[in-house]
């Protein structure tokens, strides 16, 4: 009846035809709306323009705050009793080879705090400019503090509370005091980015061979996987830990990390031997999809060589992180571990790494080749040599480039 718009000839007839189109020019986003109206045979049209500026992405721009925050790695350790020197040596090994800056979170008994400060103040300026640290007292936010302190060894349970205490920290590497880095901490830090959407922590297996593993033979409580996990080197995405509800054997609806710890401890305290590590094994037994497993060379212990070599990856690549548990840095039971510990302790900062660290280490290693762990020297030496070469080359390149900058 009505011919097609805009030739409408009927009274009391009213048409609106909005026409929309979008365009963008550089960073400006344009929305144009044309409204064509016809009324009683008259036609009008209106044009409306909207301009919006496209939001510029902050991510990945050099110098922005976002990237700077990500460039710092966080490392936590809990030191009590006579662990001062061991902890300083761990920190030293992390600083010798790492690339990005490190923030150390040191939880220590009151009388140790001052000694840490004194230790750090004696290090050269070139080293102290590459890290920050905070020293915290030992605190337990839930349950009976004395009871937590007695669990396993003094203060070990502290690390279970890191997600609750370090609320501003997104991710963290926790290590025992008897750990030594033989390659940049940056390399283990990269595993955080390899997590899938459910993983929130990473550890290495407690053992490679179930037949001789401790958990598979003796544990009287649930544990992760076939051999359990060792908690001496543990990577954590604290943000995820804080926001996850964990399945458990007590409450069907799941519990947050903070609310899980105390009931879990109450339930299992008479069945656990290795304290906090056992509690972590129980948690990840019920939540296996939350755990990322990294290979044994990232947490290499006497167990990997004293019954014969059973960490195959370390034979090929060398040890990345050495974990001298059972006190082997301080006695004569496993001289290979002690040789590495002493070489790092005696290395004077700023001296040539090959001359003052690697060659002495290699020489002392010759005396250990007839011990169980010294039989395959490349397990201990291959990675550290590679690391030093990389550090050395980086320094040379920096020196060569300096005049042009
Ligand atoms: C940790 O997890 C949170 C939440 O999934 C994520 O936003 C953050 O990037 C993760 N941190 C790292 C270092 O991957
Ligand atoms: C993440 O990996 C773990 C371990 O391989 C697995 O159990 C879990 O189902 C994975 N999660 C997703 C969302 O794929």
TrEMBL record:
Q: What is its main location?
A: membrane
Molecular function terms, GO-annotated? UDP-D-xylose:beta-D-glucoside alpha-1,3-D-xylosyltransferase activity
Keywords in alphabetical order: Glycoprotein, Glycosyltransferase, Membrane, Signal-anchor, Transferase, Transmembrane, Transmembrane helix
| Localization in the cell | Membrane
Q: Which domain of life is it from?
A: Eukaryota
A GO BP entry: protein O-linked glycosylation via N-acetyl-galactosamine
Question: Entry's InterPro entries?
Answer: Glyco_trans_8, Glycosyltransferase_8, Nucleotide-diphossugar_trans
Q: Which residues cross the membrane?
A: 28-51
Question: Membrane topology for this entry?
Answer: Single-pass type II membrane protein
Q: Which SUPFAM superfamilies match?
A: Nucleotide-diphospho-sugar transferases
Catalysed reaction(s)?
3-O-(beta-D-glucosyl)-L-seryl-[EGF-like domain protein] + UDP-alpha-D-xylose = 3-O-[alpha-D-xylosyl-(1->3)-beta-D-glucosyl]-L-seryl-[EGF-like domain protein] + UDP + H(+)
* A family per Pfam: Glyco_transf_8
Known EC number: 2.4.2.42
Principal EC category: transferase
GO cellular component, alphabetical, reads:
membrane
| Family classification | Belongs to the glycosyltransferase 8 family.
Annotated function = Glycosyltransferase which elongates the O-linked glucose attached to EGF-like repeats in the extracellular domain of Notch proteins by catalyzing the addition of xylose.
Q: Which PANTHER family match?
A: GLUCOSIDE XYLOSYLTRANSFERASE 2, IP22168P
Please report the name of this protein according to its UniProt entry. Answer: UDP-D-xylose:beta-D-glucoside alpha-1,3-D-xylosyltransferase
